[in-house]
């Protein structure tokens, strides 16, 4: 059998398996590029089970490019609240406005135009144009990396430039252009359901006859990673300040996590700190300058919150004061009753959920 025949055979086996075992998901079988785009962006960094409700709510409120483009950013973020990686929502919003201004509100069909949209990388662009219009662009996501690295026992680390290039070329050669969309969905689904990271059920895999890793007993050696990324620890001290039914929030700016979301006044420190140490920091002193009496309690201590490449340790202080200070004027003053109207990071949401009931006491 020639290489081309082998590749066609693999693609056929994948598609046949997919038709039998694919999950029925609300965005499947849609050829609307907007729906495909939203589902793909939600599914980046989010599991299908978790993303499903978000997808349904989001597309109900914003059913097309126009409705998303017209919306207020705060509302878009509110619909995203809890999903994390909020730059995805901001990018969707920016890209929707861009589609309206550059393409008259019609989703562009050319790969080059799709990839020029904010937040759309090679993977998402390939998914959109292949699922919507069967254009022959291969998708290469984490699932595809895993399947290909095992199927062909590839020793190049997947998290390197060379690895990405090699796997993309391989995915391209395997793609049968006649069935581009179906093939791409099939290989991704095989990675999600069958060729899973731990304990893949190779005995019932449609590719087992052809899988080099399986046939050499080395499935768990693949994929290979170089893993150079370091994890950074950060210590967050949130101040839930209460005065006459009011509290204060601030909106995160800059290139750090959670841009555009609201949170309580925050003191971030390089190391873990107890309250006695925290009180001595310049930030704490400037927040409460001139205040003699305050009632302080810890609502939640040392909550560990894991993000990609960083681990946050957060403590939430409840601080009741008897007068307002000048420093608080730089924050947004809100009625405590309105707190749930604001889009907040998942960490703050966890706190609000836990404190529901005694938040307003
Ligand atoms: S045989 Fe096993 S390792 Fe190979 S592709 Fe199938 S599930 Fe993955």
Tell me what you see in this structure.
The chain has about 350 residues and is α+β, with helices and mostly antiparallel strands. It has two domains: about 5-220, Hypothetical protein, domain 2 (Endonuclease III, domain 1); about 230-355, Nucleoside Triphosphate Pyrophosphohydrolase. It is built from 15 helices and seven strands. It has a four-stranded mixed β-sheet with strand order 4-1-6-5, covered by helices on one side. The longest helix is centred in the N-terminal third of the chain and has 19 residues, at about 5-20. The termini are far apart. It binds iron/sulfur cluster. The site of iron/sulfur cluster has 14 residues, from helix 9 and helix 12.
Structural class: alpha+beta
The gyration radius over C-alpha positions equals: 25 Å
Report strand %: 5-15%
Oligomer: single chain
Helix count equals 15
Uncertain regions spanning at least 5 consecutive residues: none
Order of helices and strands: HHHHHHHHHHHHEEEEHHEEEH
Annotation, overall tally of beta strands: 7
Bound ligands, each once:
iron/sulfur cluster
């Amino acid at each position: 059998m020639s290489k081309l025949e082998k590749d066609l055979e693999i693609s056929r086996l994948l598609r046949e398996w997919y038709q039998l075992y694919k999950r029925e998901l609300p965005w499947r079988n849609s050829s609307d590029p907007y729906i495909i785009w939203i589902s793909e962006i939600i599914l980046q960094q989010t599991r299908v089970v978790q993303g499903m409700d978000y997808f349904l709510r989001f597309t109900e409120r914003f059913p097309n490019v126009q409705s998303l483009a017209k919306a207020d950013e705060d509302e878009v973020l509110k619909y995203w609240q809890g999903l994390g990686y909020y730059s995805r929502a901001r990018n969707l919003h920016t890209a929707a406005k861009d589609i309206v201004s550059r393409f008259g509100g019609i989703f562009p069909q050319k790969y080059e135009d799709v990839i020029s949209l904010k937040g759309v990388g090679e993977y998402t662009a390939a998914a959109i144009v292949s699922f919507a219009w069967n254009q022959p662009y291969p998708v290469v996501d984490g699932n595809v990396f895993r399947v290909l690295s095992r199927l062909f026992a590839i020793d190049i680390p997947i998290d390197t430039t060379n690895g990405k290039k090699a796997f993309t070329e391989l995915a391209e050669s395997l793609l049968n252009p006649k069935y581009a969309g179906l093939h791409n969905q099939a290989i991704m689904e095989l990675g999600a359901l069958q060729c899973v990271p731990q304990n893949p059920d190779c005995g019932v895999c449609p590719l087992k006859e052809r899988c080099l890793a399986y046939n050499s007993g080395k499935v768990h050696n693949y994929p290979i990673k170089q893993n150079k990324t370091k994890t950074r620890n950060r210590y967050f001290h949130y101040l839930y300040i209460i005065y006459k039914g009011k509290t204060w929030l601030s909106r995160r700016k800059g290139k750090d996590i959670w841009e555009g979301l609201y949170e309580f006044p925050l003191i971030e420190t390089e190391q873990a700190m107890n309250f006695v140490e925290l009180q001595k920091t310049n930030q704490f002193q400037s927040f409460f300058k001139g205040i003699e009496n305050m009632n302080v309690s810890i609502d939640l201590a040392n909550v560990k919150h894991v993000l990609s490449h960083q681990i946050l340790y957060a403590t939430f202080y409840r601080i009741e004061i008897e007068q307002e200070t000048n420093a608080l004027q730089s924050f947004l003053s809100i009625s405590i009753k309105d707190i749930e109207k604001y889009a907040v990071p998942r960490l703050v949401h966890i706190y609000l959920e836990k404190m529901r009931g005694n938040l307003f006491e």
